[in-house]
Design a protein that fits this description.
26% strand, alpha+beta, D-Maltodextrin-Binding Protein, domain 2, Fructose-1,6-Bisphosphatase, Chain A, domain 1
Length: 263
């Protein structure tokens, strides 16, 4: 299908960064058995990917601002536009040789995400969305799943772990949702969780301790696929509150209600 010039810029940047990540992922398997392990190598791979993305995006749109997980924010001359980038979402998966990770690029215009690209180099799955133009997986139109109740739903989530998050709250939320759903999944890459909601592979998703680069591209994918994305309080403050819930209209509402009761 024909992409807009803007999406072509984002796709080209993602594919270029992905080439190195794919090579690095192959090397991780060799490093797993070393005494030092692959951690430092993966950190360097993450930074290299972000440098590639920033260079490619800047070359195409030199005035745009840039917010990346590794390098922070760089203000451009065009303050109404900002790239929001995670060069390697699912770093822990990558570190352990698990092929569930992605490059995520969102474009924000005057505070609203207007385009998103999520790309998994290992599966070669490319998710794209532009505001008002729909969401796609490798050029196939996406729609959120149509299930109308949690009892039939498979829900993805993020979980608190050592050094991050409120374990007691996490356990309460799991308990509040676990006996209402057909299945829970913890895949370890927020961008792909949102992409899976958009694709109808999973019915809903929630997570706390989330950052803008984790969710910017995924939010527009879900919305353009007919789904709903809010913070856990039902508002639009995902970036500042650092939590998110997504699904079709019914699943989103029931999931939010269950999580609020646990809070």
């Amino acid at each position: 299908m024909q992409h807009s010039a803007l999406l072509n810029v984002m796709i080209a940047a993602a594919r270029k960064a992905a080439r190195a990540l794919k090579r690095d992922f192959g090397e991780v398997e060799n490093l797993q058995v070393s005494l030092k392990g692959p951690a430092n190598f993966v950190t360097a791979a993450d930074r290299r990917a972000e440098e590639t993305l920033r260079a490619e995006l800047k070359k195409a749109r030199p005035g745009y601002s840039f917010l990346g997980e590794e390098g922070g924010r760089h203000e451009g001359t065009d303050t109404s536009h900002c790239w929001i980038v995670d060069p390697l979402d699912g770093t822990t998966n990558f570190l352990h040789g698990i092929p569930q990770f992605a490059i995520s690029i969102g474009l924000e215009r005057s505070g609203t995400v207007v385009a998103g690209v999520i790309y998994n180099p290992i599966t070669d799955e490319l998710y794209t969305a532009e505001r008002g133009k729909g969401a796609f997986l490798n050029d196939k139109r996406l729609r959120v799943a149509a299930r109308k109740g949690l009892a039939d739903a498979v829900i993805a989530c993020g979980l608190p772990h050592r050094g991050r998050g409120d374990l007691e709250l996490g356990l309460r939320e799991l308990g509040a949702v676990q006996d209402k759903v057909a299945g829970l999944r913890r895949f370890g890459a927020a961008a792909l969780d949102l992409a899976f909601v958009a694709a109808g592979r999973i019915d809903g998703y929630w997570e706390r301790n989330i950052s803008p680069w984790d969710i910017a591209a995924g939010m527009i994918l879900v919305r353009e696929a007919g789904g709903f994305v809010t913070d856990l309080d039902g508002g639009d403050a995902m970036y500042t509150k650092k939590h998110i819930v997504a699904g079709n209209e019914t699943i989103h509402r029931e999931l939010q209600t269950s999580l609020k009761a646990a809070g």
